[in-house]
User: What shape does this take?
Amino acid sequence: MMRRLIRAWDRLVRKLLAIHPVREGGVLGYSLRRYAGRGLETATGVRLRRGDLVLELHLDSRLLAESTGDDTAHKRILRLRRILLADLRELARQVEADPRLAAAAGLWGLTLLHRGVGFLGFTVAEPDPGAGGRLATWYMRLLLTAWHPEGEDRLEHREEELVAREIFLPMAEFRARYGSRARGG
Assistant: This one.
């Protein structure tokens, strides 16, 4: 019963936030928003400031579970990597075609799945220490228990690692890494 309630709530939240799926068969969605955090800086010196326009990233927990649910943990990670790379390349195509999207400072998200996103080019940062970060962690943990194949077991054994973090990839770096120039086109 609780699992169904969480899943229904997730569908409602995605609708209210007007999240656009990046592509059919992918797991990433996005919405164009103003950044409301305290700000962060990447290793290359690019700063994200409160009020900057960002492409806010969202993982579709249902699609993620469906596309990786039958795999071992190792295969799940490899499959997720392939799916995310394809999603990011498609999002880069959309950014190149839409000036509204290209005007964003970069890709930003709040996620429990921040370990390992450095290879995708993202900077990981602590969110605001206030209630917003704790609420986001709580909500994402609920989604994890509702959708992840290991559900509550995963949360029980790794709760201290499953804390929401901000991730950010500046637009210039995103386009250089995933855009048509990176693909040789």
